[in-house]
Specification:
about 725 residues, alpha+beta, five-stranded antiparallel β-sheet, four-stranded antiparallel β-sheet, 31 strands, elongated, WD40/YVTN_repeat-like_dom_sf, transport, Phosphate transport system permease protein pstC
């Protein structure tokens, strides 16, 4: 029995206190790490959740207004404090929507006679509060609501062409249809009209400049005329026939004609931005049409039908600046739609008997006019361009030939339709990680097996630290070298690079056969490298020297020219090599430690029983070290998934779903690094980027958790095998 002296007792108690203190410190540190992970998860989730908040509508108190004449148009300012209406007498009136500065809601702020008894009114799509009004004699004016910024000023109507009505053409006669859109030049407008003599007119008008007008004779009556917001297309509806004209300056050229069906009458509603139209049939059918390129020609194509369809008689109104529209039925049933989703974003019951309706400029409000007055609603629909379906499934975007998975968040045009599919960046992440692991695993594991099981101790003490030093290289340096130097080298020697794995493996086998035949057992430990390294260097040199000649012989030109558009200089092959180079030290170091830590009693016992060294490695060492090797692979994979700088600098950062080795990609981490600085706070772009960060966080967490569970299972399995008698 061990005797404890009096001097040992205080020391043992002090050691126990230290052990408990260290245990508590480690426990608290681990809990803090878990808490930080939870805080990161909660923060990302908090930033992402508003994307999926369902649309809603809230009613404000009704305003009873005494109107002498029904309204032709409604609208309100950005803050939804002032509303306006243009009535059938040509009066443009401004009313206060919210009480302010001693003025009650419903107070008339200003009234201005725009045009006596207008017969036609056209509202410009994609322009704020811009209208054209025409008289019975065919003369027209252009008016725009001006909400004065200064507190002491009242809202008023500005008349860009002056208060005097003007005619498109002398003696053109009365107009039956009218359309308006801003021209590309500042201060200029495109006005389209149909006269009672079946004449189609298109004019470019501007203040203090003569109008440029073109005219085309028509054979049928026209029920509706729509100018595209970009001023490049004119749509003409006659019965169930839809004609599209191309606008070149002020010249019109008929491009195509479509027969819509037997559900006439039809109505057209232009969506802001491009060439998209909502075609509304008499039976309530809603379809989106836009231009699609077919056989090198743009054709107006029905792309999507919205369901469930509203009842017959519903009115369709579009937001001024977003591709969002609503169907409002006479009984007050309201359905809100986004152009990227067939099903409504919102169903609600609003006021019945609506005579006119208009969205707020930002789409966050709705103003209705009934026989009793005005009813204002607050709309909560901040992110109509992002839906769960659009993030993960194909969407048919405007002017695309078919539904596609697209990430394209910004463009040079204000009317651009953002596309936020996560699949291209997730695919790019897995593609880059997969090819990097394909490059790194054979080198790292092969090197680890050789270093731990066959290399002499003296050489191991040199090789292992040298490879681990590679892991200290900054990834930005690796990415820079890959993008500037490696990518052109691979482009010039593409065939040689693709053939090198087979050529190097063949060179190793030939060296092994030669060593066994001519100098068996005569090489000192590590001496085989003296034979192998020159042979590998010679193989690489021959491949690089003969590769261009073989490319010309086989393809008649360099291989990357032969591939054409299917080859991108900064492609997945470059990323795989560069990122694989960065992963080799990590996987090698952990796998080599696991292999070297296998008890020598196991390997010596195997050799004593007559197994060869290779049999011992395959049947004893590798299974015993499998848990550590698996951990090394998972850590390497996790680093590859989260790698930023190499992917950022060594690829073209093209977010495409293409499995080709010769095409570029964009990864989740690189996408965040590229686009977060330019994302507007709380915008759809901003929150979708946080969603990509959350996807990356959850993915790596799940992979690491599964890897740890599998590692523990492997460890328990092989530890039990080692302890078995």
């Amino acid at each position: 029995m061990v005797q404890t002296t009096a001097n040992q007792l205080p020391r043992d108690r002090r050691r126990a206190r230290i052990d408990r203190g260290v245990q508590a410190m480690v426990t608290v540190s681990g809990l803090l790490v878990l808490m930080m992970l939870m805080l990161i998860f909660v923060y990302l989730l908090f930033a992402v959740l508003p994307l999926f908040k369902p649309a809603s509508v809230d009613a404000s108190p009704a305003l009873r207004l005494n109107h002498a004449s029904p309204a032709l148009a409604l609208g309100m300012d950005v803050q939804q404090r002032v509303g306006y209406r243009i009535d059938r007498q040509g009066e443009g009136q401004f009313y206060r929507l919210t009480a302010r500065q001693g003025q009650a809601a419903g107070t008339l702020l200003a009234s201005q006679r725009l045009l006596p008894a207008p017969t036609l009114l056209a509202r410009a799509v994609g322009a704020r509060d811009l209208f054209a009004l025409a008289q019975a004699d065919g003369r027209f004016i252009i008016a725009q609501a001006d909400f004065a910024a200064a507190p002491q000023q009242k809202p008023h109507w500005s008349l860009p062409l002056g208060a005097q009505p003007q005619a498109l053409l002398p003696h053109a006669g009365a107009l039956t249809q009218l359309a308006l859109t801003p021209a590309r030049e500042a201060g200029a407008y495109l006005v389209a009209a149909v006269t009672e003599r079946r004449q189609l007119l298109l004019a470019r008008v501007a203040a203090r400049q003569p109008a440029a007008v073109s005219a085309i004779a028509l054979s049928d009556d026209v029920q509706q005329l729509v100018l595209a917001p970009d001023g490049r297309q004119l749509y003409l509806l006659s019965g169930n026939r839809l004609a599209r004209y191309q606008i070149d300056g002020t010249q019109l050229r008929l491009q195509e004609t479509h027969t819509l069906g037997e559900q006439a009458p039809y109505r057209l509603t232009a969506l802001p931005g491009g060439s998209a139209l909502i075609v509304h049939a008499a039976d309530g059918t809603l379809q989106e049409w836009f231009d699609v390129e077919k056989n090198q020609r743009w054709r107006l194509t029905p792309a999507q039908q919205f369901t469930p369809q509203p009842a017959a008689g519903a009115a369709v109104i579009a937001e001024p600046f977003r591709r969002v529209f609503a169907a409002l039925q006479p009984d007050g049933a309201f359905a809100l739609y986004s152009s990227i989703q067939a099903r409504p974003l919102l169903h609600a019951r609003l006021a019945a008997g609506v005579q006119q309706a208009a969205f707020a400029p930002r789409g966050d409000g709705l103003l209705l006019e009934t026989a009793q007055g005005w009813q204002q609603y607050r709309l909560n629909n901040d992110y109509p361009d992002v839906t769960w379906r659009s993030l993960w499934r194909k969407v048919w975007y405007e002017n695309y030939p078919q539904p596609a998975l697209v990430w394209q968040s910004t463009s040079g045009e204000d009317s651009y339709q953002a596309k936020f599919s996560l699949m291209p960046v997730i695919f790019g992440t897995l593609k880059a990680a997969g090819y990097a692991m394909l490059f790194a695993i054979p080198l790292a594991l092969g090197g680890a097996v050789y270093t731990a099981c066959f290399m002499s101790p003296a050489l191991r003490r040199l090789v292992k630290p040298a490879i681990e030093v590679m892991g200290a290289l900054p990834t930005v340096v690796i990415g820079l070298v890959a993008g500037i130097w490696l990518a052109p080298v691979i482009e010039r020697h593409l065939l040689a690079i693709l053939a090198l794995p087979l050529l190097l493996a063949g060179a190793v086998l030939l060296c092994g056969i030669a060593q066994q035949r001519w100098r068996p057992g005569r090489l000192s430990p590590g001496g085989d490298l003296l034979l192998l390294l020159p042979a590998l260097a010679l193989t690489v040199w021959l491949a690089m020297a003969l590769g261009p000649w073989l490319e010309t012989l086989l393809f008649g030109q360099p291989m990357h020219f032969w591939l054409g558009d299917d080859f991108d200089q900064r492609n997945t092959l470059v990323v795989g090599v560069a990122m694989g180079f960065a992963l080799v030290p990590v996987i090698f170091s952990l796998a080599e430690d696991a292999l070297f830590s296998v008890p020598t009693t196991l390997t010596q016992g195997s050799l004593a029983l007559g197994a060869t060294p290779w049999q011992t490695v395959a049947r004893v060492t590798l299974p015993a070290a499998s848990a550590g090797i698996f951990s090394a692979l998972m850590i390497g994979f996790g680093r590859a998934v989260g790698e930023t700088m190499i992917v950022l600098m060594a690829t073209g950062n093209t977010p495409i779903v293409d499995g080709s080795l010769f095409q570029g990609l964009r990864a989740l981490a690189a996408n965040i690094a590229i686009e977060m600085p330019e994302a507007v706070f709380a915008s759809s772009h901003y929150r979708v980027l946080f969603l990509t960060a959350l996807v990356l966080f959850v993915f790596t967490f799940i992979v690491n958790t599964l890897a740890e569970a599998i590692r523990q299972r492997l460890r328990e399995r092989y530890s039990q095998n080692q302890e078995a008698p």
